[in-house]
Amino acid sequence: MYILSSPSGAGKTTISRMLLGADEEIKLSVSVTTRPPRPGEIEGVHYHFVSDGEFDVMIEEDDFYEWAPVFGYRYGTPKGHIRSALKDGQDFLFDIDWQGTQQLYQKDQQDVVRVFILPPSLEELQRRLTGRGTDSAEVIASRMERARAEISHWDGYDYVVINDDVEACFAKVRQILAAERMKRQRQTGLIPFVRELML
Ligand SMILES: Nc1ncnc2c1ncn2[C@@H]1O[C@H](COP(=O)(O)OP(=O)(O)OP(=O)(O)O)[C@@H](O)[C@H]1O
Ligand SMILES: Nc1nc2c(ncn2[C@@H]2O[C@H](COP(=O)(O)O)[C@@H](O)[C@H]2O)c(=O)[nH]1
C-alpha cells in the first residue's frame, strides 16, 4: 500500500498519474467521494462520485478501509476488489490525506509505505492551486488555510519529498517504491533457491 499525501495543490495527483503511467505493477485505489466532479474527472477513473446518502450506506455496511471528512466533503477507500488483490500481492497507490493514512497504518503497519509531498513554499502552493484553475478563490483560500495543519502531520510519514521540479520529484517517488519492493520482508517466498537454503 503505497500512500502519497500532501497539502492540496502540492502535486500528488500529478505524481500519481506519472507513476501509474510508468509502472505497470501498481494500480490506483480509486476513492469514493461526496465531492462533485471537477471538469474532466471521470466516474470510476478519478473517483467514484456518490451522494451523502450513498456514503452513509457504505459506512453502515462497513465498505471502507478508511474514510475521512476533507474540505467539507467525505472521502473513503472502498474495500471492493482491493482486499483480495492486496492478499495476492498486488501493489496499490493511495492518494489520500493524513487521516486516512493514519487509519491504514493502524490496520497494517507492515504493508504500508507513507510518502509526504511538500511544495517548495506556501507561495508556490498558492500559485499551483490558482494555476490549476479548478477551484474558486474561496475554495483556494480554505485549502491554503488547511495546508498549514496538514503539513504539521508530516511526522506521520516514512518519507518526505519536496516537489520543486516535477521530474525530480517523480524520480524520487519511483526510487522509494523500488527500494521498498526490495525490502527483505517483502521477498519472502519470491526467491525459491534462498528459501531452499533456509530449510
Ligand atoms: N513541480 C511542479 N511545478 C509546477 N507546477 C506543478 C508541479 N507539480 C504539480 N504542478 C501543478 O500544480 C497543480 C496542482 O497539482 P495536483 O492537482 O497534482 O495537486 P494535488 O496535490 O493532487 O492537489 P489535490 O489534493 O487538491 O488533489 C496542477 O496544476 C499541476 O499541474
Ligand atoms: N482519507 C482520504 N482522503 C482522500 C481520499 N481520496 C482523496 N483524499 C484526499 O482528499 C483531499 C482532497 O482531494 P481533491 O481531489 O478533492 O482535491 C486530498 O488531500 C486527497 O488526498 C480517501 O479515499 N481517503
Architecture overview:
This protein has helices spanning 12-22, 52-60, 82-87, 98-107, 122-132, 137-151, 166-181, 192-198; strands at 2-5, 26-28, 32-33, 48-49, 64-70, 73-78, 91-95, 113-118, 159-162. By secondary structure, the protein is an alpha/beta fold. The protein has a single domain (2-183), classed as P-loop containing nucleotide triphosphate hydrolases (Rossmann fold). Helix 1 packs across helix 7 and helix 5 packs antiparallel against helix 6. It starts with a strand and ends with a helix. Bound molecules: adenosine-5'-triphosphate and ligand LQESDW3C. The site of adenosine-5'-triphosphate has 14 residues, from helix 1 and helix 5. Essential for recycling GMP and indirectly, cGMP. One of its GO terms (molecular function) is GMP kinase activity. ATP binds at residues 6-13.
Bound compounds, each kind once, are: adenosine-5'-triphosphate, ligand LQESDW3C
The tally of strands reads: 9
Distance between the termini: 30 Å
CATH superfamily: P-loop containing nucleotide triphosphate hydrolases
Count structural domains.
1
What's the alpha carbon Rg, rounded to whole Å?
18 Å
At CATH level 2, the architecture is 3-Layer(aba) Sandwich
* CATH secondary-structure class: Alpha Beta
Write the layout of secondary structure elements.
Layout: E1 2-5, H1 12-22, E2 26-28, E3 32-33, E4 48-49, H2 52-60, E5 64-70, E6 73-78, H3 82-87, E7 91-95, H4 98-107, E8 113-118, H5 122-132, H6 137-151, E9 159-162, H7 166-181, H8 192-198
Parallel strand pairs: 1-7, 1-8, 2-7, 3-4, 8-9
Antiparallel strand pairs: 3-6, 5-6
